[in-house]
Specification:
about 110 residues, alpha/beta, globular
Length: about 110
Amino acid sequence: MEITTQQYKHCDLISVKGRIDSYTAPKLGEAMEAINNVGRYKIVLDLSGLEFMSSAGFRTMLMGQRNCKRYNRGEIVLAALPKRTQEALDLTGFTPLFRTFPDLTSAVGSF
């Protein structure tokens, strides 16, 4: 899995390529936590390069969302979700917990 981060004026972007499973999910958690630790809580998660996400990845996203929304500071939004990941979000009941956008531009623009 490859994670890249980029800082914009109103939010931070985390782009994920590859697989998020129990081995790689902690790296995603660390990337989100590093952004929170510098006082930034609005995150766009670009999943256009995602090949697979296990339950550990969903759990990491959920924990990141909880940290960002604490005290109404921000949130995590999802951009360019692959169809299978969207279906998995629907099955797990996580869809209402995340705002999703079809592309990166609209996700970043939502902040």
